[in-house]
Design brief:
171 residues; mainly alpha; elongated
Length: 171
């Protein structure tokens, strides 16, 4: 194998690992719905934030809203998973193609990884962490969200990098 093919295979495997991770996340959210819903319920309900917190007015205690938020998260995870998985398949199909074709094959994986990044950053770190003050709660998922943001972000950066032996130079 040549260096370009090695790098392309690394990109494909790493991108596929993100799809696999999200498959497991969606699976666990569906199989253990109640436990994972409890996390959403506590974060939205803000029932374990600091006492006398002036931001507690933001709490959502409606059970139907908890289910809705949780299904939105599962849908978001599923969308990212499908986009990344199909993107990985397209990368695999284009692994031996000329550079421009391989570059075009990155599109769906790029969109999927970005959707995943937005999930961890916008939904968990921003909305959960700051709006619902998850950082004050024992139901704090910010560290896990940051890990996933970092993993997917690094994967996206690596996917977008051009190989040293000329990818992107018209060969």
């Amino acid at each position: 194998m040549n260096s370009r093919m090695d790098v392309r295979l690394c990109k494909i495997v790493l991108t596929g690992a993100s799809a696999f991770f999200l498959l497991l996340v969606v699976f666990n959210n569906l199989v253990d719905y109640g436990s994972n819903l409890a996390f959403v319920r506590h974060v939205l309900g803000m029932d374990t934030v600091f006492e006398a917190n002036r931001g507690s007015w933001r709490a959502i205690e409606n059970t139907a809203a908890h289910h809705l938020f949780f299904w939105m998260i599962i849908g978001w995870e599923s969308a990212a998973m499908v986009l990344i998985a199909v993107g990985t398949w397209r990368l695999w199909q284009a692994r031996r193609f000329p550079t421009q074709s391989f570059q075009r094959a990155k599109t769906l994986a790029t969109v999927g990884l970005t959707v995943g990044l937005l999930l961890w950053y916008a939904a968990f770190i921003s909305i959960g962490g700051e709006w619902f003050l998850m950082w004050q709660s024992r139901w704090n998922g910010q560290d896990a969200a940051l890990r996933m943001f970092a993993v997917m972000g690094i994967s996206l950066i690596f996917l977008q990098m051009r190989e040293a032996d000329g990818e992107g130079e018209g060969n």
